[in-house]
Structure formats: C-alpha cells, structure tokens
Amino acid sequence: QVQLVESGGGLVQAGESLSLSCAASGAGSERIFLMGWYRQAPGKQRELVAEITSGGSTNLADFVKGRFAISRGNAKNTVYLQMNSLKTEDTAVYYCKAGRPGRWYWGQGTQVTVSS
Asked: pLDDT exceeding 70 applies to what percent of the chain?
C-alpha cells in the first residue's frame, strides 16, 4: 500500500510564492508512473493542477501555466509543486495523487490560502 505525505501548505499573500512537496512510500511506490497535484476549493469540484510522469513529461492546467511548475525528485517518488504569483483564486486544498492506471493513491490534502 502506497502512502503519500504532503507538506508545504500555508497562508500567503497574493503575488507571493509557495512550494508543496509529496513523498510516496510503501509497497508499490517503486511502480509509480505518474504523480500530480489536484485542488479543491469550497463548493467546487476537484481539478487537476499539474502532473508529471516518471519520464518527466508534464501536464499543467491552463490556469497555472506560467506561474506553477512541477518536478520530481531524484528518487522519483517525490513530487514538488512550485507555485509563484499566487492569486486569491488559488485558495484550495491541494491533494497529491500518484500511481498508475488502475491503481491510484491520494494524499490527505494540504491547505493553501492566498489572501488579498
């Protein structure tokens, strides 16, 4: 069973930066193909923010292109989300997702709050 532990959330002002990290561990973590970040704001559906494959291919949502960057650690079982030029609408709970088709795992979520 893969466990995902997220860290790095917090409260920042608009225009500032924040970095999130997610580390995967446990049986099966060596077979992770894709890691990514989703977010869910109050009253809204969970949406993709960014994802990255084990080969380094990335996919970013249009609303974060040019502001956010996703990367994976050397051990391939850690993913980072660098968030720059944060906006109030980026306020949400950010969830790490990892796994492979047919076997996905989720982190517990970390709150990101951007004040004006």
From this structure: 100
Buried b or exposed e, range 70-90, using 16+ CB within 10 angstroms: bebeeebbbbbbbbeebeeeb
- Cα 109 to chain centroid, rounded: 9
- State the Cα–Cα distance between residues 49 and 59, nearest whole angstrom: 8
The tokens of 30 are what?
Answer: 């060596």
How far apart are the C-alpha atoms of 97 and 99, rounded to whole Å?
A: 7
Percent of residues in the chain assigned helix, strand, coil, to nearest 5: 10, 55, 35
List, in sequence order, every residue forming a beta bridge with 38; answer none if it has no partner.
48, 95
Question: What is the C-alpha to C-alpha distance for residues 26 and 39, in angstroms, rounded to an integer?
Answer: 24
